[in-house]
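Appendix B, example 12.
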Amino acid sequence: MKEAVTTAQMAREVFGTSWIKLEVIGEDDTLQPDVFGLVEAARVLVADGFEVFPYTTEDLVVAGKLLDAGCKVLMPWGSPIGSGRGLNNLFGLRALRAHHPDVPLVVDAGIGVPSHAAQAMELGFDAVLINTSVALARNPVRMAEAFGMAVEAGHAAYLAGPMEPRDMAAPSTPVLGKAVFE
C-alpha cells in the first residue's frame, strides 16, 4: 500500500497530473487486487488530491468502499491481467453495473479478443482497457482497429436495448394480421 502511494506521488511530480490508476496486487499468480490495501491506498490518495482509478474486483462491497473513499470511477477486472479469458463473472459484472448506474465503469484486465470488449459494452460498461491482447497480436494495429469496432458495436447494442434471454422458445414472426387457413 505504501509503495502504491509513494509511486503515485512521484508520478504526479513527473507527469504533472493528479489522475492515477491504482493497482495494489495481493496475489502473484492471478495478479488479483488486494482489496483491503486498495481501499486504504485510495482513501490516502483521494485525501491527497488525486483522482483515483482503482483496479479492483467486481465485488459490490469493495466497490461501495472505494466509492466511499472518494473514487469516482471503478475498474473491475474481467479476468486476471494478461489472461485473455474474457469476462469470468458475468453475474458480478452485471450486478456492479446495476448497483452503480451512474458510476463510470471500465473493465480492466482479461480482455483477449474483440468479442470480449463488445460483451463488456453490451453489459453497459463505459469502456474497456486493452493492453496485452493488442501488444501480443501478430498485427497490433489491425487488432486495435478490431477492438475499436467491437467497442462501438457493443455500446450501440446496449443503447438499442437487447432482448433478454429466455428459457423457452418464442415465435419471432408476428402472426397478427396474417392469413389463417383452416
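The chain has a mean pLDDT of 92. The longest helix spans residues 140-160.
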